[in-house]
Write the structure tokens for this entry.
Amino acid sequence: MCKLNFLKSAPEENESEDQSDSNVVKLSGSVKAQKLLQVEPLPYFMHYIMKLILQHNFISIDSEEWTKEENYDQKELNDKYPMELATVWLTQKSEGYYSNTYGTV
């Protein structure tokens, strides 16, 4: 059985540029709502199926839409144990904030 655990994160990206008069101008910025999907021990073929599921444009979990932007990381538990743990960061599809100052004034 697969157990899903979620941890929250809000990574942000900012871009700015220095001007010749020593001022800094912010050009763009964004904040994304992310959750860490932790997959309990599964055999390798089930991790392959999970990777295929996560390759869709989005997945729906508790009526919220999520998309996979990060790598699906597997961790071997033991050489003699045929199962592996996995983690992947999922980004909420409809949430987030983005500002862009490249537009014309």
Strands lie at 4-9, 12-18, 24-31, 34-43, 59-61, 64-68, 73-78, 81-92, 97-100. Residues 44-54 form the longest helix (11 residues). Residues 4-12+32-98 form one domain.
